[in-house]
Design goal:
The protein is built from 14 helices and no strands. The protein is mainly alpha-helical. The chain has one domain (2-230). It is a multi-pass membrane protein.
């Protein structure tokens, strides 16, 4: 955790987070597109490495890396395949980075802070473990909590690694696809004098299906709650 914190401080002090912006993406668009055409595998490797690092250290503005994926790979692979490939790269990279932060949190903070927190954490962990996959999947699907915050909380509560990876990989797919598709259409938006709306995921046509998926993920917990209420006292 100390190393991750130092890397974050170093990255911010060097101004790396300032490169994760619309202005830099558009200013460097010609150069980046040329790299994609001439050295596609190098670009993919750098893209994945940067995404993993940004996710691991919780670098602000990492959402622009997802958008950049659609921007870079859309023209090369087409409007249909481009966002799909960008989504796959982004979700895989984000899951790896999240898992690294999850490991660091669990190893560094788990035992000491949990012992000090006492019964409250024990009760919280017990309730979460009843449907850890459903709860975590819901938090990944809905834009209600910071991505890095969920990683920290999951490590603190001792969620199983398999559950964490599976819920994360599945849960972030819709959001990754939305922002990769947004990146794929950035040039069209700029030509019309518009800027990409980063709050697009809160629009009803996207948020309502996500709420439906989240409800399905929580059905086991909802059913247990209903059964507990129906039991005679």
């Amino acid at each position: 955790m100390a190393l991750i914190a130092l890397l974050l401080v170093f990255a911010i002090s060097m101004g790396w987070h300032k490169y994760l912006s619309l202005d830099v993406l558009t200013q460097q668009s010609a150069h980046l597109r040329l790299l994609v055409e001439t050295k596609p595998w190098l670009v993919i490797g750098c893209y994945v490495a940067i995404y993993i690092l940004a996710t691991t250290i919780a670098l602000p503005g990492a959402i622009w890396i997802t958008i950049a994926g659609g921007f870079l790979f859309g023209p090369m692979l087409g409007p249909f395949l481009g966002p799909i490939v960008a989504t796959a790269l982004a979700s895989t990279s984000a899951t790896i980075g999240a898992t690294m932060l999850f490991f660091a949190t669990r190893s560094a903070l788990g035992d000491g802070l949990r012992a000090q927190a006492g019964g409250f954490i024990d009760r919280l962990e017990k309730g979460f473990q009843e449907n850890a996959f459903g709860y975590l999947l819901t938090l990944r699907l809905l834009p209600v909590a910071p991505f890095f915050g969920i990683n920290l909380a999951a490590g603190f509560l001792g969620i199983q690694l398999r559950t964490f990876i599976l819920a994360t990989a599945i849960g972030i797919l819709p959001g990754c696809y939305v922002y990769a598709s947004l990146g794929n259409g950035i040039e069209h938006l700029l030509e019309q004098g518009q800027k990409p709306d980063l709050k697009i995921i809160y629009s009803p046509e996207i948020l309502i299906p996500l709420l439906g998926l989240a409800t399905l993920a929580l059905l086991p917990s909802i059913w247990r709650f209903v059964q507990s209420r129906l039991k005679p006292s």
